[in-house]
Specification:
It is a single chain. The chain is of the alpha/beta class and 469 residues long. It is built from 16 helices and 13 strands. It has a domain of 241 residues: Alpha-Beta Complex (Amidase signature (AS) enzymes). The protein is 39% helix and 15% strand. Strand 9, helix 9 and strand 10 form a beta-alpha-beta unit.
Length: 469
Amino acid sequence: MSTIYELHKKLVNKEISSVELTKEYLKTIQQKEPELNAFITVCEKEALAQAEEADKLIAVEDYTAVTGMPYAAKDLFCTKGIKTTAGSKILESYVPPYNATVINKLSDAVLLGKANMDEFAMGASGEKSFFGPTKNPYDLTRVSGGTSSGPAAAVAAEEALFSLGTDTGGSIRVPASFCGVVGLKVTYGRVSRYGAIAMASSLDTVGAMTKNVKDMAIVLQCIAGHDDFDSTTPKVAVDDYAKEMEKDVKKLRVGVPKEYFTLDGMDKDVKKIVEQAIKRIEGLGVRVEEVSLPYTKYAIPVYYIIVPSEVSSNLARYDGIKYGYRAKDADELLDVYLNSRQQGMGDEAKRRIMIGAYSLSSGYYDAYYKKASQVRTLIRQDFQKVFQQVDCLLAPTSPTTAFKLGEKNNDPLSMYLADICTAPASIAGLPALSVPCGLANNLPVGLQIIGNYFKESDILKLGSAYEQQ
C-alpha cells in the first residue's frame, strides 16, 4: 500500500513519473468501479494533462509534497470545467466556472475524478446519491458510510492516493471508520470552504482521507490556512504538522469521556476494540483519565434541528431558474420552482428541507431552533471545561461497523444515530481524527481522537504514535 511520503521520494528520485503513477490509478478505477461505484465522474484526460505538468515541475525541482499525487475529490467541490453534482439530480449537468480554494491549493496534484456522495452531503451511509450507493471495499454488500462515501472507498480500494471530503456531523470520520482509512475533521474554519457546495454553513468543514496519519499531516499542511474568500477562516498560524508529529506524546493528557461508551446502539465488539486501543495508548506512557461530557446525549437532537434549518435556507437557491435541473412540465413560474425541486431532489433532501422550514417557522422558532442553539452552547462549554484538564479525548468513531446496504433505508432515525459519536465535536466546532484500530467480524473499527480548537497537531501526533505502536 503506497503512501504520499513514499511516492514523493520515488517521484523526486525519478524512479517513477506522475504520468505512470496516474495511469496505474486510472487502470485500478476502470477495474473496480463497476462494482464499487466510488466515482461519479472520472477525469482521465484532465488527470493525464495535470500529471504531465507535475512531471515538468519535478524536473526543474519546483515541487511540493503533493506534486504529481493522484487524488479524488468529493463531488461538492467546484471544479472549473468539470461536472460538480453534489450527488443530486438537480445538479447532474452543472459545470462550475471556477475552482474551490482547496482544489486550487492542490493544483500541482492530480485530480483523478469526482467521488460519489450522499445528495448534498445528507446521509450516513452513502446510499442517498442520485448516482447509486457506494459499496464498502471490505464487503460489497455493506455501506461505505456517508456522506463522503466515495472518497473513503476510493482510498481504501487503492483507487486514489488520498481524497478530499467534507464533515458536518461525521461525514469524513464515519466513512473513514467503515472503510478502514484515516479521516480528519478539522477545527471549524481551519480549511477554506469557498467553492464547496454548502449544506449547513455553521457546521461544514473541509478535510481529507488518507492511508496513514503521516499522509494526513502532509495534505493538511497544503490545504489549511486563512482564505480571503471565506470569512470563517481566521488568521491563526498553521502548524508544521509533520514536525509536530515527531514530538514526544508522553506530555499529552488524554481523557476518555464515559458517556461515549454507554450510547444507544453501541456494539459490544466495537466497544471492546476501542477500549483495547485506549490501553495501547496508555502503553505509550500517556496519562489517560476518565472525564465527563454530560450534554453528549443531546448532540443528535440538537444536530437534527440546526442542520435541517440551515439546509432549508441553503437549498432554496436550487429552483430551476439560474442553473441545474429545470422541470419541463411547467407552464408558470411557480410550477418551475415546485416541479424542479420535486423532481430534482431526493427524499432525504426533501425531508430535511421540511423539518428545517418547520423549525424556523413563526411560532416554532423559539421552541426548536432557538432552544437547539442554546443547548449547542452548553455542549461547547462541556468540551471547553474538559479541555482545561486534558489535551485530547478518545472515543469510538461509530457505535457499529458498516451495516448492510438497505438495512436502515426505511428507518431515518436509526440512520441518524450512525453520527451519535461524531456529532458532539461537530456541534462544538472541534477537530477530530478517525484512525483504524482493528476489525470486528472482519469489518474495520475506528478510534476517534478529539482535540482542542486549532490543535490538529495534538491529535495527529497521538494518532501517529498509536498507528506506529
